[in-house]
Amino acid sequence: MSTTAGVRPLKTAPVPERGNGISLRGVSVHLPTADGELQILRNVTIDVPAGKIVALAGESGSGKSTAMLAMVRLLPWGARVGGELVVGPHEVTAMDAGRMRGFRASYARVVFQDPWSALHAMHSIGSQLVESARSADPGLSKAAARELAVAMLSRVGIPDPEARMRSYPHQVSGGQLQRIVIAMALVAKPQVLLCDEPTTALDVTTQEQILELLRELNVEMGLTIVIATHDLDVIDGLADHLVVMYGGTVMEQGPMKQVMGNPQHPYTWSLLQAQPKRQGKGRLLTIPGRPPALDDLPPGCAFAPRCASAAPECSDAVPRLLAPHLPDHRTACIRVQQASTPAAAQKGTP
Ligand SMILES: Nc1ncnc2c1ncn2[C@@H]1O[C@H](COP(=O)(O)OP(=O)(O)OP(=O)(O)O)[C@@H](O)[C@H]1O
Ligand SMILES: [Mg+2]
Predict the structure, then answer these.
(1) Which amino acid residue places its CA nearest to atom 27 of ligand 1?
(2) Tens of pLDDT along 204-216?
(3) Do residues 234 and 276 both lie within one domain?
(4) What is the Cα–Cα distance from 262 to 342, expressed in whole angstroms?
């Protein structure tokens, strides 16, 4: 059977082994800076069920990219990672550099915001796809890798993929290039796709098409997908699970519809209110104040200084991420945890 024949009928192919999802438990990340170490992530706990789409959302600087890149240890030199980090069957913090490279080449692939940064300007698209496939499976012949590359280009919606194989990145539009970058990840047949603001650089129509493509790939291939975005509108209706981050930690997480429809944490509530789609014409609500500097976090809940529901005790201790009312829907807010019913908790939101 040719490689192409093995790849093209994705819709009818059995869903591959899905592994065990992604689990971060009490993860911390410290990065070296000119002024000493800076703690970027603190006590991050995230559960990504296998085969699901999970969104990491939050304002700029909340730690979305760092959390995502920690999952594949793509952090700056000198980074110190603590806690438990498991991706599928792999204990990420325990892998040596060689195994880590293999893991990043084949098991968990990253798609960045800027497709230009993922491609070499001087190499043809085809040669980069072939190299990507063979880095994941060194036993693959060049011909088989080429066939796989053409099939994947076709699958991600690139017209005339044979001709496109001979093109160079500068000959292709941004939207097409992002599809090519996704194809470059898919030729490695990964279980996990980590997408950091994958559509931010694209126009609205192209954005929607790329997100639709990610959903299709999730369904067809059983891919676990993590998407970091500052724009909740982008992942509304796409993600299965939502993780809301602030000040380098997780404020709330749970099934997407549940969190969007019934946000428990005042920060999530504010973030949703600030989404353009939720606002009427002429009104532009923003969250008052600014996110905290990571080297100068307020005591207790990092959001308390901006929170309309804050009480003095919010500054006493960092709230734990708990599920007081609904299974799988966890919130790091003592006001919510104090409230005895979901209705009472709702009253606590501004
Ligand atoms: N190499 C680094 N050295 C020092 N600080 C860093 C480094 N990388 C990130 N940071 C800081 O860590 C914090 C979290 O950054 P991160 O990029 O993870 O946030 P983000 O939520 O992805 O933001 P954005 O929406 O802007 O992409 C920010 O305050 C950032 O300035
Ligand atoms: Mg980021």
Answers:
(1) 60
(2) 888 899 999 999 9
(3) no
(4) 9
Write out pLDDT tens, residues 283-326.
Answer: 566 788 899 999 999 999 999 999 999 999 999 999 999 987 77
Indicate the pairing of strand 53-57 with strand 241-246: parallel
Contacts of 240 (CB under 8 A, 6+ apart): 49, 52, 53, 54, 255, 256
Give the CATH number for residue 76: 3.40.50.300
- 83 belongs to a structural domain: yes
Residue 317 lies in a domain: yes
Provide CB contacts within 8 A for 318, sequence distance 6+. Answer: 42, 43, 249, 300, 301, 302, 332
Same domain (yes/no): 224, 341: no
Residues lining ligand 1, judged by CB closer than 6 Å?
31, 33, 38, 40, 58, 60-66, 76, 228, 230, 294
* Full domain range(s) for residue 88: 3-242
Instruction: Tell how far the Cα of 54 is from the centroid of ligand 2, in angstroms.
Output: 15
Ligand 1 centroid distance, CA of 70 (Å): 12
- Its pTM stands at 0.89
